[in-house]
Amino acid sequence: MQSPDFSKDIALVTGATGGIGKSICNALASLGCSVVVNYFSNDKKAEDLAEHIKSAYSTKAITVKADMRDYGQSSNAPTKQVRALHAEVLKQLGPPTILVNNAGSALRKYRLQSIEDVSLEEFETSWRINCGSQFLLTQLCMPTMREVGYGRVIFISTLHGLIHWLAANYAKDGITVNGVAPALIGNTEIAFPSNMQRRVPVQRLGKPEEIAETILWMVKTSYVTNKIVGVDGGMYPQ
Questions:
Q1: Cα–Cα distances in Å, from 162 out to 39, 88, 132, 148?
Q2: What does the DSSP 8-state code read for residue 11?
Q3: Is the CB of residue 156 less than 8 Å from the CB of residue 101?
Q4: Which of 12, 83, 141, 162 would you call most buried, defined as having the most Cβ atoms within 10 angstroms of its Cβ?
Q5: Is 238 domain-assigned?
């Protein structure tokens, strides 16, 4: 069977400079996709990743800085970095055909505390990154995906309701919508206790590359949609 041609695909990966994001970018570039490296603060990491992609895979790669908390209350809002991110991708490369909503924020300092200890401001910041910005960016990318009859939208989260609704409504337009729910992934910004891997059925932490492999499967298949795949070493039964 002939392999699909992804050389015309434009892949937008948010939160691309972390361990998982970097692996996703490299995996998509290996298919021949042009890659948009979205990042929040580390200019050097983003530029280094883009340069590596261009030299290693001979494909296009650009960096676009954007704070995923900042999308404004309307299309006319004075501060709207998420909208500006999409506009910059259109300007430099064209409309994304693959969107990987990877940017995320955890309430790390409150992880083991009660809900009363989490401030509304902290929750709202997390929500804007994990939900609001992902909704808006998907909304911005959908029209051109529908127009060409092709698209891949992937959430690195557990936004079950949004994923199911989008998948049901856009399957007829050739657009698949799936989610990846990673857990206990090593070599990322989150440090796990040394004994954590003993709690995982496969007896080890996951690798960022294993998230990327799942993304590639979702990109390549056109018959799998409306699914959330747990990449967690069997930690959480589906």
A1: 23, 25, 11, 22
A2: E
A3: yes
A4: 12
A5: no
56 band by pLDDT with thresholds 50, 70 and 90: very high
Specify whether the backbone of 234 is left (phi greater than 0), alpha (psi in -120 to 50) or beta: left
Instruction: Please list the alpha-helical segments (H only) found in the chain.
Output: 19-30, 43-57, 81-92, 120-127, 133-148, 160-170, 208-220
Token reading at 87: 């506009």
pLDDT tens column, 126-166: 888 888 999 999 999 999 999 999 999 999 865 677 788 88
DSSP-assigned beta bridge partners for residue 179: 155, 228
Q: Is 5 within a domain?
A: no
CA 102 to chain centre: 2
Cα–Cα distances (Å) from 15 to 24, 130, 149, 183, in that order, read 10, 11, 27, 17
Which residues make beta-bridge pairs with 156? 180
Please indicate, yes or no, if residue 24 is contained in any of the structural domains.
yes
Half-sphere exposure of residue 40: CA atoms within 13 angstroms, side-chain side = 13
| Among 150, 131, 119, CA closest to 8 | 150
Residue 111's domain is classified under what CATH number? Answer: 3.40.50.720
- Cβ proximity of 229 and 155 under 8 Å: no
What is the number of structural domains in the chain? Answer: 1
Spatial strand order of the sheet with 228-231 comes to 61-65, 34-39, 10-13, 98-101, 151-156, 175-182, 228-231
CA–CA gap between residue 19 and residue 207 (Å, rounded): 9
Residue 3 lies in a domain: no
Quote the CA–CA distance of 25 and 8 in Å, as a whole number. Answer: 15
